Amino acid sequence: MCQISVHYATIAHMEPILRRRFGERFKSLRQASGLSQEAFADKVGFARTYMSRIETGRANVSLDAIDVLASGLGITVSELFLEL
After folding, report:
1. 10 Å Cβ neighbour count for 33?
2. Residue 18 pLDDT greater than 60, yes or no
3. Residue 74 in 3-state DSSP?
4. Of 1, 12, 43, 81, which residue is least crowded by CB atoms under 10 Å?
5. Helix, strand, coil shares of the chain as percentages rounded to 5?
6. DSSP character for 37?
7. How far apart are CA 26 and CA 9, in angstroms?
8. Closest CA to 52 of 26, 82, 15
9. What is the rounded CA–CA span in Å between residue 54 and residue 24?
10. Count of CA atoms in the C-beta half-sphere (13 A) of 64
């Protein structure tokens, strides 16, 4: 039972790191596309504040939202996750 608790604590500790890395990757791709945060948010139908939360790793992005982000960038979901 203790081993499960340690494993869960390790996973819980790593989640913010993955969200931050995903946000950094997304931000880099968005900037490379030439769109501002606001312009991209308008393009995909998300609030600019949500885009900010994604890019800073504060949002735990759903699979559906990830698909929308990738489509908005004109890439596949797997390409969005490259180099994470």
Report:
1. 14
2. yes
3. coil
4. 1
5. 75, 0, 25
6. H
7. 27
8. 26
9. 9
10. 2
Between CA 75 and CA 83 the distance in angstroms is: 14
**Beta strand residue intervals within 22-84, DSSP E:** none
1: confidence class by pLDDT, cuts 50, 70, 90? very low
Map tokens 């596949």 to a residue. 76
Q: How far apart are CA 48 and CA 39, in angstroms?
A: 8
| C-alpha angle 63-68-73 in degrees, rounded to nearest 5 | 125
pLDDT for position 72: 98
Quick check: 39 pLDDT over 80? yes
Mean predicted confidence (pLDDT) in 16-23: 94
